[in-house]
Input
Amino acid sequence: MISAFELRVCSESLLGRLLHACLEHDAKPEALLKHVLAQAPAGRCKVADFDYLPLPPEAVTGYIRSARERHKGVHILLHGPTGTGKTEFSRALAADLCWPLYEVPVEDSEQHSNSGRERIAQYALSQRILERGEAALLAFDEAEDLFPDPRYSWFHSTDQALPKGWINRLLENTPVPTVWMANEVRQIDPAILRRFDLIIEVNAMPPSKRRQLIDAQLGELPIGPAFRDRLAAHEDLAPAEVERLARVAGAFSVSAPTHIETMLRRAMAGSRRAMGMPTRPRTAPEPALYQPHWTNADRDLGQLAQCLAKRPEARLCLYGPSGTGKSAFAHYLSRVAERPLIAKRASDLLDCYVGSTEKQIAAAFDQARDQDAILLIDEADSFLMDRQRAQRNWELSQVNELLAQMEDYDGLLVMTTNLFDKLDSAVIRRFDFKVKFDFLKPDQRCGLLAAFAERIPLVGNPLAKQAAEARLARLDRLTPGDYALVARQVRICGTMTLAEFTTHLAAEHAQKGRAECHDARTE
Output
């Protein structure tokens, strides 16, 4: 029976639709459901696609099936950033259970947003309608808006607040299992969080899973592996976006088959730019020309990578000038060790709120543990500054949190910095390997030029090659990053000769000298 309070929280529109359904269809459950819920479409993924999550998906479905038979109030909370696949996971769970999935709509039939009161009323009514039917699963998205933590009450409208006791009783007595989804859990009242049976963090799919999804959707379309790898490098790539790209690619394969990758890249960039999403992967794929012997380090990087692949539990500090190949080595190590790479920059971890940076740091280590991945933290000097120089409490707490996480972490951790002398001494002692990266040696400069000349290719005869190598011998502050930068200029401008390529390298070399002179004057 529907309670008086449930009727009070219903909007006039919802009550009108239900009354009309009762008069037209003699209150049949299937007729009422159409006015309260939306049956979810078939998902694009299987539960096996989510085997990277902290809890095995088959354990989650097993729990839901078993718990439904034993007691009421079965609730699962999925939380994580937008686009990580929470909705797809809920649909995959329902498919694995062989149960229909009903979603509480965020919008009404006229595309107007439903309020929290409206949605919880729909949820409560749907529980009453479904309790006598066959087994089913309910999904409720944007749950953080419904259960606000009193500490954040100024963010929420008081007229939309629902009695806490009624919410608690509702959650304890619901007969139909529910999957709740939220982007953030810190806004949810802790008293509500305690009522969820399972709380599962859904992070971005690892690159290997994204690549499998891309291959499944794009199928035999004429899209090369390099382009597919670049798509898979987008950490925020959602299954729905992959399906949309596959539809667009299918149309382009008919209308513009010779330019399909170019057209698809432009279409994807336009869509992402409009939605405020990055148009380039945050973690760029490993440079195609990277080889350890073209990096000037004080340790044999090839041998080090092989050792770490056999025993992947070490803490590395890679330090040296920008562009010397520190981050590129982490990508190379990921390939040799056959482990995914999770790359975090200072902008990913630093937060304006006190205590939030520490939470972001802890979450990065948790994500690496869950995915059995290599964790790369670029710009580590942003967190690991010498505590003797700290002026604020939060500066100390960031270093302390990172030290604690480093101590507890038993995987592969790679940190890079250009400012090794600014690091805290206690942090330095915790690194198993401290590898210095420096400017290229003369033979490395010539070898890297020959590799780029063959790949691009660059125009020049043997005499031009000798002249270029002679000029390179005088450029003692070049890095692999300089070569990659000039190679990008070639892709933009078109054909380039060996002499022109070397001239551009010399310009980058001269720029470093000017920058150093400026730094010296400002100190």
